[in-house]
Amino acid sequence: MAKNVLAVIDMQNDFIDGALGTREAEAIVEKVAAQIRDFAGEVVYTRDTHLEGYLETQEGKKLPVLHCIKGTEGWQIRDGLQKPGQEEAKIFDKPAFGSVELAQYLKEMKDLESVTLIGLCTDICVISNAMVIKAFLPEVTVKVKADCCAGVTPESHKNALEAMKMCQVEIVDEE
Model confidence over 103-117: pLDDT tens digits? Predict the structure, then answer.
């Protein structure tokens, strides 16, 4: 039987209404919850994870906003985004935009047919994870559900979706 996986990217408090939150991120929370609840397959999560020395890292120097510090409330995945019956879902803590661990986990799956990505931010971590997954699994269908993603800005969200289309990621519009 073919497997389908839903990868929920960085739906963390700091990206929704915390340090780096946006109205657009807040607006997708209910759609994301519905996708998770209704998805016929495994749901996995990524979690942006930084340590106390974040501001000294390359990312911290380019984005000097403390966010997703391990163990803080902002680091936590938003309550209500767990799939019923799958409370012990796989979570990939990642110190970088893309998760090699997630891609490796998917690569080891037998009969994987598709991976659908939803979450935040379209133009940073969603696109990065889509590209890493495509590199690890070039023959697996990779999809991004556009209405369940939000970017840093509406314009950068649209630009990221267009870039992913060019890399053979299937963009699924609002249904």
Answer: 999 999 999 999 999
